[in-house]
Specification:
- It is a multi-pass membrane protein.
- The chain is about 55% helix and about 5% strand.
- It folds into 2 domains: about 190 residues, no CATH class; about 375 residues, Up-down Bundle (Amino acid/polyamine transporter I), CATH 1.20.1740.
- It is built from 19 helices and 10 strands.
Length: about 600
């Protein structure tokens, strides 16, 4: 329990517009019996992920990591209501959440109904309960929570009891409470939200998972186009700029904690047109990601079975990813771990191959002569797009911060995230260009598969890993686009009383998934060059989402606190983002 001095420290902090409260969980009466076939509302069957394993225990158990990843994946959505001031609110003040993930949800349940629906009341817990591991703390032993104060008014002394069945096992079975937070906006309106659940390590894991994608395999070619003299500093500058703009987004959220999504920032800056424009950008971004995954799928299998064309394998991909399109989010989220492991496994294979082979090409023991300068402006423009494509995580960063148990730790999480990502990206780019020099292909894995001298299993392993990435991630990537089509066709998520109507809506939803996959396959066949496609996406979207817009958001939302130096910095980033975006897109089109 915190001492008086520590408690006063909480109240001296600058941010006084967020108040936390702990709501006891109603797990059912003691007289209830357990039936393994029909568990009662308060029951929860433990699984493997709930068991402690080394340092993965408590709030950092494997089960909590899996839940955090599922929430992070649920944040990928496209706003279909541009006139909505806040993405995850009903009527502007009632928060919406998904009872299965305890994450904000566009079509979720009203939090006010969940709190008031049971009708029971319980005495507000003591300070020690508020500071219990199950309520507020993560991996830190400290009892200091920056920016948090607790109201003492009588209105907050008694709170309704939440029914545990509302949360469907998404809460740790040992937890005795759910933490809510009351947020006061700049205009004085008070709203209640579910407090974030992810710890610092979980937020870093989710952020790295977003940033390290298949674009990493094109970085050696980007470095070849730019040359080592320009390329390595360019990667470092892009990394620092992306970190800085992510921090600007975080500061915008500090001004108004009800802004949970990137679309909320767009609405606060530009109104409904801003939200609509951002939804358009997200749609193009997700569609492009799906296309890139299909290009990787076709190229990887074509390297293993060259007698079949790339187009043939892309058509095979249509049937390979279709079953996942019909799977629910929890299955897709778990399955996406296979994509993460495959990406990391491929990076390790690249390093292993470089150390295994003693002679060039394809060796780190006898390296090739890397280009030092760009050969022409077209190559430099392509390099700009390719090297910027791996920093496109800002669209989800606002949600990840809102999901943190301690949002004040978010900056430290960003530092760790970008340190890991920059190290992985720069290392992969340098390794690839040292191993293959000017002969490196648009995918460095393609260069490995075309180079003799490695163990035979490596060629098969790389093809398998690169094939698993699209299978694991495509359905999750296209899920938000499918949801938009479902809404456009009037398909609601609520179960219908008429079974035939429900069946027809499921058929239409499945058709939407088929349609999106067909469009992605078609685009990947029309534009088969991975490097040019990545350059186009990186220059056209990443500079806008990760550079230009965050600075505009900050200059608008934080106009009362922004300093002159910050205005100058933001203006410089906006100008350079616009110029480099035009340069990269133009080079991709000309090439």
């Amino acid at each position: 329990m915190p001492e008086d001095g520590e408690r006063s420290f909480l109240n001296r902090k600058k941010s006084q517009n967020v108040h936390y409260m702990s709501i006891p969980i109603n797990r059912g009466s003691e007289g209830e019996t357990y039936d393994e076939h029909h568990p009662q509302d308060g029951s929860h069957r433990r699984n493997l992920f709930d068991q402690p394993l080394g340092s993965f225990k408590g709030v950092n158990s494997l089960g909590r990591f899996a839940s955090s990843l599922r929430r992070a994946n649920s944040f990928m959505n496209i706003d279909v209501g541009p006139d909505k001031e806040r993405t995850f609110f009903k009527d502007g003040q009632d928060a919406l959440f998904d009872p299965y993930t305890l994450a904000p949800s566009v079509d979720g349940r009203r939090l006010s109904h969940a709190v008031a629906g049971r009708g029971g009341l319980s005495v507000r817990p003591s300070m020690s309960e508020l500071y219990d591991d199950s309520a507020l703390f993560d991996d830190q032993d400290s009892i200091t929570v920056p920016g948090v104060s607790f109201p003492n008014d009588a209105a907050t002394s008694r709170r309704p009891t939440l029914g545990f069945q509302d949360f469907d096992g998404s809460i740790d079975p040992d937890a005795h409470s759910v933490v809510l937070k009351k947020v006061e906006t700049k205009d004085g309106k008070v709203v209640t939200l579910l407090a974030g659940q992810s710890t610092g390590p979980q937020t870093v894991f989710n952020s790295v998972n977003i940033l390290i994608g298949i674009g990493i395999f094109a970085l050696p070619l980007g470095l070849r186009y730019a040359g080592l003299i320009f390329g390595v500093p360019m990667l470092a500058i892009f990394a620092y700029t992306a970190f800085h703009t992510a921090e600007l987004i975080s500061r915008c959220q500090d001004e108004d904690p009800t802004m949970i999504s990137y679309g909320d920032l767009g609405y606060a800056t530009f109104g409904s047109r801003g939200r609509a424009f951002i939804s358009f950008l997200f749609t193009i971004d997700l569609l492009a990601s799906g296309v890139a995954l299909m290009i990787i799928f076709g190229d990887s299998l074509n390297m293993l079975f060259p007698k079949y064309s790339v187009t043939f394998f892309k058509l095979i991909a249509f049937f390979a990813v279709m079953p996942q399109t019909l799977a629910p989010l929890n299955v897709l989220s778990t399955f996406s771990l296979l994509g993460i492991l495959s990406t990391l496994g491929t990076v390790f294979c690249i390093a292993f191959c470089g150390l295994y082979k003693s002679s060039s090409p394809g060796s780190l023991l006898e390296t090739m002569s890397p280009p030092l300068w760009p050969q022409n402006m077209t190559n430099f423009g392509l390099a700009v797009g390719i090297l910027s494509a791996c920093w496109g995580g800002h669209a989800v960063f606002p949600n990840l911060k809102s999901d943190m148990r301690h949002p004040a730790k978010y900056r430290n999480c960003l530092v760790t995230t970008f340190a890991i990502t920059a190290s992985a990206d720069i290392s992969t780019a340098v390794l690839g260009v040292l191993m293959f020099g000017v002969s490196v292909k648009d995918e460095v894995t393609k260069s490995l598969q075309l180079t003799p001298g490695y163990p035979r299993f490596i060629y098969v392993l790389i093809s398998v890993l690169m094939t698993l990435i699209p299978i694991a991630k495509t359905a999750l990537t296209t899920r938000p686009i499918n949801a938009v089509l479902d809404v456009a066709m009037g398909i609601t998520v609520q179960p219908e009383s008429d079974d035939s109507l429900l069946r027809s809506k499921r058929i239409i939803s499945s058709f939407n998934g088929l349609l999106i996959n067909a469009v992605i396959i078609g685009i990947s066949i029309l534009f088969p060059d991975f490097d040019k496609f990545i350059a186009f996406v990186g220059a056209g979207l990443c500079f806008t989402i990760c550079g230009l817009l965050p600075c505009i958001f900050y200059m608008s939302i934080c106009s009362e606190t922004i300093t002159t130096w910050e205005k100058i910095t933001c203006t410089v980033i906006i100008i350079f983002s616009a110029v480099l975006s035009v340069l990269g897109v133009g080079a991709a089109i000309l090439a």
